[in-house]
Design a protein that fits this description.
alpha/beta
């Protein structure tokens, strides 16, 4: 059975963290935590194995459990660092790539929870819930794209973005109607996008998620592409292939909320660690999910590290930040008396504002040739203006008002449209207040809302002609 250094022995100097790492982590300014926390295959004193480290400051004890020790929490206990960081760590010999594991965490109330690794690079395929020891290994062939992507991603460059949910874009009927794998997607999707003259593709969240019906928006693994369609290297291949065809890749990323599944971030060390303790701040009733505590330094570092991880390791060209509105307003989705005002008595989430500004600053500092997109549906000012000018620092903002006005206009009977032309032109009044993207969101075709063609008040052939000649041409010209 794989061995661990004796629990009572101090952590050796070969641990993953330096004093600077710990300082930056405590300050909330360590944005490469994926290089330190989680599981990392190393050689320690000529012995190959894996170094595990996890943040659980309020735990009584933390052990690594997995197939290698028959899921026995008494075998491989981790050591708590003595620097006040709340990080538990240790080396387990002979545990290598592919091993499944969890952290068995004993909390102060005497309860034990088996948690997946927040920094896992790969998870078991749902509904299984364990993390996997993994190393990212892909020989990238997109150097030509990476050299010019700054020009392709400029604010005044043409953008035509195709939104994709990987699990439903194309199926294999002869094999039980299964979804395509990342590798199969790499064979079909790039050619399809080139043929239709799209410049970018936007993937609905690929981050690991337990509930398929959430389309990925209930993220549980912030550093891992979902195992449903293959290993991480296959997703890298998909991105690489798209880049070789001149297609930029935008990833939906969800720092607003997370699910309450028992193996996830919720109540991680027996306390409300990643989320607020008070449900008026830490629970979103609309989605039945938990809300991040942006006032905690380590949580901000965790989320920012996740964002930079995808730009760093997966060559992602842009992040579309989901549900920004819910982050900005403390009363989002709540009735009077169900939320707590900020220190000034207002409804603005000041901690979230600070987080978003710092996030965008970090992204554009380290990856100036990428873009961030805000899904924000209110009149919050200067969303796509630099933080040092009082903005939120995003590169672009989704124009939700234009989308709703346009869809309502085309849903009108053609005879009546002449009375509704103001809907199609109203957005010009505010079109230059932000750097806008004109979206047609997946949210507008689900829950019985109907497809774009189905919204047209005419027969299907006429709707196709109208869409291709009218709205389709308008979008292409934009």
């Amino acid at each position: 059975m794989p061995g661990l250094m004796n629990p009572g022995v101090p952590v050796p100097k070969s641990g993953m963290f330096t004093d600077l790492d710990i300082y930056l982590f405590k300050q909330g300014d360590h944005f490469r935590l994926y290089e330190k926390l989680g599981s990392h295959c190393i050689t320690l004193e000529d012995v190959k194995g894996t170094w595990f480290s996890v943040w659980a400051p309020n735990a009584v004890s933390v052990s690594v459990i997995g197939e290698f020790n028959y899921w026995d929490a008494t075998v491989h206990a981790l050591c708590l660092r003595d620097d006040g960081s709340g990080i538990w760590e240790g080396f387990i010999a002979d545990v290598t790539v592919g091993a499944t594991y969890k952290y068995s965490i004993l909390s102060r109330d005497g309860k034990t929870a088996d948690k997946g690794d927040p920094f896992a690079l790969y998870w078991e395929k749902p509904p299984l819930t364990a993390s996997r020891v993994w190393e990212l290994d892909h020989a990238w062939n997109d150097a030509d794209w990476m050299r010019v992507r700054g020009e392709k991603n400029r604010l005044n460059a043409p953008f035509s973005i195709y939104e994709v949910h990987l699990g439903s874009w194309r199926r294999v009927p002869e094999e039980g109607n299964r979804s395509l794998t990342y590798r199969e997607m790499a064979e079909w999707l790039p050619r399809y996008l080139v043929e239709l003259n799209f410049t970018h593709v936007e993937f609905m969240p690929v981050t690991e998620h337990p509930f398929y019906g959430s389309w990925g928006y209930e993220t549980i693994g912030y550093f891992a592409p979902t195992a449903r369609y293959g290993p991480p290297e296959d997703f890298m291949l998909l991105v690489d292939t798209l880049h070789q065809q001149g297609i930029g890749v935008i990833l939906d990323w969800v720092p607003a909320h997370f699910p309450a599944d028992a193996h996830g971030l919720g109540h991680f060390d027996g306390t409300f660690l990643y989320e607020h303790a008070d449900p008026r701040q830490g629970y979103q009733p609309d989605w039945h999910s938990s809300l991040f505590n942006y006032g905690r330094n380590e949580v901000r570092a965790f989320l920012t590290s996740s964002a930079l991880f995808w730009l760093d390791k997966y060559h992602i060209d842009g992040l579309r930040i989901d549900a920004v509105t819910s982050m900005l307003y403390l009363d989002y989705g709540r009735k009077e008396g169900e939320w707590i005002p900020n220190r000034n008595g207002g409804r603005e989430n000041l901690d979230a504002v600070t987080f978003l500004r710092n996030l965008n600053d970090a992204i554009y500092r380290d990856y100036p040739d990428t873009q961030t997109f805000a899904e924000e549906s209110t009149a919050w000012p200067m969303v796509s203006r630099p933080a040092n000018f009082g903005g939120l620092g995003f590169g672009l903002k989704w124009n939700m008002g234009w989308m709703h006005d346009t869809l309502e206009y085309f849903s009108e009977n053609p005879i009546n449209r002449k009375y509704h032309h103001t809907q199609i032109i109203f957005s010009i009044w505010y079109a230059f207040s932000e750097n806008f993207v004109l979206p047609l969101s997946h949210d507008e075709v689900v829950y019985g809302k109907g497809s774009l063609i189905g919204k047209m008040s005419c027969d299907e052939l006429s709707a196709i002609n109208l869409f291709e000649g009218g709205l389709g041409g308008f979008l292409q010209n934009r």
